[in-house]
Amino acid sequence: MRVRQNDTVVIISGRDRDKRGKVQSVLPKKGLVVVEGLNMVKRHQRPTAMMRQAGIIQKEAPLPLARVMVVCPRCNKGARVGYHTLEDGRKVRVCRKCKEMIDL
Question: Would residue 20 be called left, alpha or beta, if left means φ above 0 and alpha means ψ between -120 and 50 degrees?
């Protein structure tokens, strides 16, 4: 996957364009990603045994993976992700522009 949990990403289209956030979760089978504080939607919530709070709540909705780009630590911009194999056999993600490793 080019996007992983705890990555910093930038939204490239939609109403939250050019905003940055941290990835909370990735849903690879559906091709979706949930970003902290972005793509907020309002839901009408009924009180349940687990959720005592009722009313209109705001929460993050999943975004398609195609609408986010990983932020390169060196360029500090959205980066296309490539892959390189290191000498020890590990496969790491790299920025396609500056060749900086994204994985630490």
Answer: beta
Rounded to the nearest 5°, which phi and psi values hold at 47?
-70, 135
Alpha helix stretches (DSSP H) within 16-74:
none
Check whether residue 11 and residue 59 sit in a common domain: yes
For the entire predicted model, the pTM comes to: 0.82
Q: Are residues 89 and 64 in the same domain?
A: no
- Looking at the chain, the number of H-run helices and the number of E-run strands are 0, 10
Parts of the chain with a pLDDT under 70: 104
- Which burial class, exposed, middle or buried, applies to 54 when counting CB atoms under 10 A from its CB (0-12, 13-18, 19+)? exposed
Tell whether 79 and 42 lie within a shared domain. Answer: no
- pLDDT score, position 104: 67
